[in-house]
Amino acid sequence: MYCLQWLIPVLLIPKPMNATLVQNQVMFVVLYLIGYVLERKPCTICSLVFAVAVFMLCMSGVGNCIFSFIPFMQTNCHNNYSQTTTQCN
């Protein structure tokens, strides 16, 4: 599991709010992972653990995946007291 010390921090890199910077971050992550796999050749167990972690992160919500070009979206939600539902823009 020594090789995971170079893979897990990739999941912790925060996504920028700017859409252009999100594309740069995705390219950085993809190129880093390709370079890491070609240079270090991680073991099968580490590769599977990392793949499961990425899969779980991507399935946890829209915009959470490290490979998606969708930046974090901030929604302005307010409760209209004349209606019973909450409206989000």
TrEMBL record:
Keywords: Membrane, Signal, Transmembrane, Transmembrane helix. The chain crosses the membrane at residues 20-38, 45-70. One of its GO terms (cellular component) is membrane. InterPro entries: BCALP (IPR009598). It holds the Pfam family BC10. Its main location: membrane. It is found in: Membrane. Residues 1-19 form the signal peptide. Acts as a tumor suppressor; induces growth arrest at G(1)/S checkpoint and apoptosis via RB1-dependent and p53/TP53- and NF-kappa-B-independent mechanisms. Modulates expression of genes involved in the regulation of proliferation, cell cycle and apoptosis. Belongs to the BLCAP family. PANTHER family: BLADDER CANCER 10 KD PROTEIN HOMOLOG, BLADDER CANCER-ASSOCIATED PROTEIN. This is Bladder cancer-associated protein.
